[in-house]
Amino acid sequence: MAIMGIDLGGRRLRMGQIVIGSDGSLGLQGSVEERPSPKSWEEFVKVLCEHHKSDVEGYGIAIAGAIEDHAAVVKAPNLPWLDGRNVPEELAPHLGLNSKQIVIANDMEAAAYGERERGVLKGYDWAIFDTISTGWGGALILNGEVVVGEPGHVNLGFDLPYIC
Q1: Is 100 exposed, middle or buried (0-12, 13-18, 19+ CB in 10 A)?
Q2: Is 24 helix (H, G, I), strand (E, B) or coil?
Q3: Does residue 137 surpass a pLDDT of 60?
Q4: What is the DSSP-derived secondary structure letter of residue 112?
Q5: 93 burial level (CB within 10 Å; 0-12, 13-18, 19+)
Q6: Residue 107, number of CB atoms within 10 A of its CB
Q7: Is the dihedral of CA 84, 46, 51, 49 positive or negative?
Q8: How far apart are CA 74 and CA 129, in angstroms?
Q9: What's the CA gap between 90 and 83, in Å, rounded?
Q10: 43-53, pLDDT tens digit by residue?
């Protein structure tokens, strides 16, 4: 089985095909491609369609910003063309998949899960996971559970319409 891993940031788009072995092992098929981030939804769809292969059974897409139910982008500060978009529902028809085969996550949530499952946080039940790039992101691992936060998008008032 193969899935496409996508890291969609404000400056760069990275994508790679990940092969999942019958024993649960992961391996990268080929290399990770990196390019400037798309400037529109149409450009994003075009890039993914150009790289879609028939053996890809799903997509995991990490996006900076507030994500709801691993499907809808509430607010993507660096990618405003994604705001309010249900990525799986809108992307699936272009790739010949159903929306359940496409999952999106906040980029720091995805990174924290990856590090907890297979990286430097493997075996730890308690951790603070912080990263600084174009923004500041982070998550906590509390008693083995990932608790997502976006410290770089914290509102400083209580009467604002958007709560990060």
Answers
A1: exposed
A2: coil
A3: yes
A4: H
A5: exposed
A6: 23
A7: positive
A8: 23
A9: 13
A10: 999 999 999 98
- Measure the CA–CA gap between 4 and 56, rounded to whole angstroms: 7
Residue ranges in the chain assigned as alpha helix (H): 41-51, 87-95, 107-118
Residue in the structure block whose two tokens are 């608790």: 147
The whole-angstrom separation of Cα 49 and Cα 70 is: 21
CB 65 within 8 A of CB 77: yes
Q: Please state the φ and ψ torsions of residue 5, each to the nearest 5 degrees.
A: -100, 125
Provide long-range contacts, Cβ within 8 A and 24+ apart, for 88-97. Answer: 90/41, 91/45, 91/48, 91/59, 94/45, 94/48, 94/49, 95/48, 95/49, 95/52, 95/56, 95/59, 96/52, 97/57, 97/58, 97/59
State pLDDT tens for residues 37-96.
999 999 999 999 999 988 899 999 999 888 888 899 998 888 999 999 999 999 999 999
Model confidence pTM above 0.90: no
